[in-house]
Amino acid sequence: MRRRRFLTGALTAGAAGAGAAAIAGSYPRPALAQSRIEWRMVTAWPKGLPGLGSSAERLAERIGQLSAGRLTVKVFAGGELVSPLQGLAAVSQGMAEMAHDFALYHIGQLPAAGFFSAVPFGLTPAEFNGWINFGGGQELWDELYDSVGAKPFLAGNTGVQMGGWFLDEVNDVADLKGRRFSIPGYGGDALKKLGVETVTLSSGELFGRLQDRSIDGAEWIGPYNDLSLGLYKITKLYYWPGFQEPGTGLECVVDKAKFAALPDDLRQIVAAACQAENDLTSAEYSGRSPGALATLVNEHGVKLKKFSRDLLMAFGSAASDVVGEVLEGGDDITRRIVTSYLRHRKSALVWSRITDGGYLAARDLGFRFPDGSTS
Amino acid sequence: MRRRRFLTGALTAGAAGAGAAAIAGSYPRPALAQSRIEWRMVTAWPKGLPGLGSSAERLAERIGQLSAGRLTVKVFAGGELVSPLQGLAAVSQGMAEMAHDFALYHIGQLPAAGFFSAVPFGLTPAEFNGWINFGGGQELWDELYDSVGAKPFLAGNTGVQMGGWFLDEVNDVADLKGRRFSIPGYGGDALKKLGVETVTLSSGELFGRLQDRSIDGAEWIGPYNDLSLGLYKITKLYYWPGFQEPGTGLECVVDKAKFAALPDDLRQIVAAACQAENDLTSAEYSGRSPGALATLVNEHGVKLKKFSRDLLMAFGSAASDVVGEVLEGGDDITRRIVTSYLRHRKSALVWSRITDGGYLAARDLGFRFPDGSTS
After folding, report:
1. pLDDT band (50, 70, 90) for residue A373
2. Is B240 an interface residue toward A (CB < 8 Å)?
3. Is residue A302 part of a domain?
4. For chain B, how many structural domains are there in total?
5. What's the Rg (C-alpha) of chain A?
6. A329 in contact with chain B, both atoms CB, cutoff 8 A
7. CATH (domain of B97)
8. Is A245 annotated in some ligand binding site?
9. ipTM of this predicted complex?
10. pLDDT by residue (tens digit) across B218-263?
11. CB of B160 less than 8 A from some CB of A
12. Domain that residue B115 falls in
């Protein structure tokens, strides 16, 4: 089964420039010396990217710490060994032992892969963690990636994202027709149904493409990352809510055979480090986004714009159509993944409505609180 | 500083019955044999309690696995070594190396301790994780518990809780006067301001006290736990939202000196195991609550009742008063904790409103989805 889906040709670094393929070929194989194991982790992120990039670095470092150096992980930025969106392929082909990216980057090869990162109008981060760990999600994810020789772990979550940046206002569906927008995954497929021309750009390309107006807008993540990319310098129109990615899971993919060959405690260490990082990265986005948003609004004059009800209804119907098509057009594993996800969603909707939703609405009723808010 | 706050007399098991003090006295001290360390973890939970109890067991087991048995942890149910609510005191006095409970149980000794579990109308679980990890919360928590010789870790979250069970309907503030309700922490202090007589009962006492009507109602956690306690057999009135505990953190408290004496990798293992468990326990409550709620409603005829707007406004004002009093009446560390928490809350309010709140409202607009919901 292994390697049946990926072509070696697709693995060479694209935007990252020349030499990456040669580097990949000459990089030494992991060596066993004094029971020390060295692994390579390829990532989809530019060097030093806050949140996503620092999460990958922290995860690698933690594995080394927990194992007292018996298993060390060297991290490569997107493009250093392979192109940013090809992490799973690299693991599948033995060019790296680990990859750190979004599962939605693999929809082209594995159509249901995106259900393990984000689905428009799908599960919230808490609901998603519930499905993965206690709703059958992990077992289905394992089965899906088993076909390419990989073992996946959840390793972070961005939280509910922002709807994105637009060069010009969008008030209704007619305003979307013919616009060019950078958005990956099923969310991009949904916008296509509403007449948007979509592309999937890496974070490093967004600023330039917005600046020269070769795209009309882009969604990336949220204030913490978008601030560092400087997108506010080009447009002030920042839309919410981010229906297209309501809490996007990060994955750490591991070479399945090499993972199975580890001693038991090192397998547990890899799993625990990913689970700890899932918690910590989510906390980082939750902890740092409010301050970054305040900086965007108060220092850079960014305007928060809420998508209109008509637009949200249209997004909802388009997302529904996309999910339905993945379900109906898919093979057996795809259908089982989508069915399990939808079953969890339907049940979780009621619970989240009276807890998370009910609580947030109550907190906003308008009484004064000692933080000075009229919350 | 150590031991200055706790009296030995308070540590003997209360409701758990006779013999616990004697057991505590005769239990062998941790032994070092072949570099193996054995620690004791006291908990606030009855043996086998789903969610909270199984989380403590899982955490202890994970520490053993990650360390390949170099550090093993033996778990004691509430009352086996010390009474359920005295975990921090037990660690402070060297009777156990770890305790697993809610920080709000320690408000009597450390008035700001509850800010490290739940504050009525306070932070959501995601906001709370953000404050602890990236908003200065952990450093303040470390400082607070340093005064009793302990090091705290976040080790789980129940998610937004339910408002609780009432024997008779409550529609406005007048209905609350003279009612007896089991509720701990600042939430209990808030209800007192509205004329409620409050008590803090352990989970094992709730059924009997509701059954003989010596209390008129109780909040515990949510469907997953409340189902196992069988509270639906006594009353069908189940209120939401749970303003009193909008996502309650579980803590794992460790003897600070013994933690500092561990080798570096074992310290990292304890910390990572707690962080992984913080993620997994939250996922367990998120994953299992929807099904438990459906069982309560569909099989046991439980009625979901929303607190009226008037009640929620009254709860909000009372909670505000309680938080203000803790802030103004507290010593230096109390004031710094409450101030930091409130600063984070004010900033996070805006972010959660447009992401979590905005997304949940959009998902509920009424379009059809392939899961059959008109979401």
Report:
1. confident
2. yes
3. no
4. 1
5. 21
6. no
7. 3.40.190.170
8. yes
9. 0.92
10. 999 999 999 999 999 999 999 999 999 999 999 999 999 999 999 9
11. yes
12. 14-159+247-287
